[in-house]
Amino acid sequence: MTLNILFAARPERWKTYEAPLRAALADAGIDAHLATEIAPDQVDYIVYAPNSPLQDFTPYTRAKAVLNLWAGVETITGNETLHIPLARMVDPGLTKGMVEWVTGHVMRHHLGMDSDIKRDDAQWVYRTPPLAQERSVVIFGLGALGMAVAETLVMLGFKVTGWSRSPKEVEGITALHGPGGLDKALAAAEIAVLLLPDTPATENTLNAQTLTQMPKGAFIINPGRGPLIDDDALLAALDSGHIAHATLDVFRVEPLPQDHPYWAHPSVTVTPHIAAETRASTASQALVENIRRGEAGEPFLNLVDRSLGY
Amino acid sequence: MTLNILFAARPERWKTYEAPLRAALADAGIDAHLATEIAPDQVDYIVYAPNSPLQDFTPYTRAKAVLNLWAGVETITGNETLHIPLARMVDPGLTKGMVEWVTGHVMRHHLGMDSDIKRDDAQWVYRTPPLAQERSVVIFGLGALGMAVAETLVMLGFKVTGWSRSPKEVEGITALHGPGGLDKALAAAEIAVLLLPDTPATENTLNAQTLTQMPKGAFIINPGRGPLIDDDALLAALDSGHIAHATLDVFRVEPLPQDHPYWAHPSVTVTPHIAAETRASTASQALVENIRRGEAGEPFLNLVDRSLGY
Q: Domains plus CATH for chain A?
């Protein structure tokens, strides 16, 4: 039987994904009709980007799952027409890219590289950087990405603390959780990495109050979600010098508007949402694995619990 | 019996080392008279910095070893008055610091961070950085530091090649050696890390000829020794754009003179010899371990082969 797989995303995604998806389906031995238009009541699986025109899932009466192209699902979890399983993307390439982006910026702030990179004098000013074993990094969010980042930073020798909503055990790190653990996590965050999901409970995790709980001179790295930070509070903390620098990859509005104060702020580095980039080849393999599981009656990987919003 | 240990280095070193050395001696249970002045014919061990006033070892008739405070020994290996064992410093803290400095700058160039850090516009220009598994890094020099760097870069996922004078086998990396291997190593060096010793054979390893053998747009990272690079040839390769950027921590003359073109060159990052910094606490433990070995009749660690110059 030929499976009907609808690719519901913007045309530029189709250009990127058509070839690797067809290759991954062929590799898995799945006989599929993959297209951007299929009669709704004939569709078996929906490969989906939340910014697709498809917002009403009601006519997709026989579809078995919605397979998200991205890790982030916050704009789809509230969709009341969606009653079939929703899987988030956990792309090994995306995870690797995230680990590399975070590792690079943690090392950059740890070593104080900016003063060398932006140098405009000829002063040989000796300094001894601390070792990673003397540097405390806190990862807010211990999902798949946060865990992968934690493992790498531990391997590099940092003192790593993780904070999550619910209790977790992770070898080699101090794992804190809940509101009680948050105070300790903030106090330890010489470098804070934000990898929490975007939910009502995580909005403004860093705000005027919690920013003051971080050590003076702390660094903030946000490759997670824009709403995790109260932007006005962060700007005030940067202006006062309490926070030394913020490296931000995600924003409440993207692209970041040209008149946003983050662009010109000397203590802010803006990167254009590049930390968590899905790679088409590895992502296609992950999508096809879930289709194979659906057909084999095995549980889907990376299902979203919509009651929690992630 | 009390051992007489002469500390022969500049006064600022004594300030840094006296307390940790005394602590390490006490921890090892060694009864020692540690001082900056001792009658030469009474000295048992010499803790030594090559820029110390002590340059004539002839009167130190009963000394058993010279224990260098630094990794670099090129200014002492030619000393014809030195006939006792010479050990170089292999400080675990130094090695960690080197690995961190190299890892940071490899990640920085790999991710193309400088365009974000030095940004002076408000342009959201999307880009997909390659993954480490798509990036080839070549480490020139597979001594203790080169090996430690190689291990960490392998763990981070890079395609790592190492080049050394004599054949070596290192798990997870492509190990090349000798003049034949050099051509291959240069051709693979999207990012080159120089960790060769400073010997007549390694001077100008990167010169007008070898620089052209590197891929266009390559990055050079030199935490090794200044003379490994022909500076004029590097400046020409940077000006032509064949080499994208050089991050240099060591120079033929240090501090780097204020009128040196490296300071103002937009494609050069100067750091003030901070990559290979000995940490007094861990270095003191290493020095004392060699004294313990000498007294126990065990072979010294990290002996220098003066016929090779390292």
A: 3-91+278-296 (3.40.50.720), 92-270 (3.40.50.720)
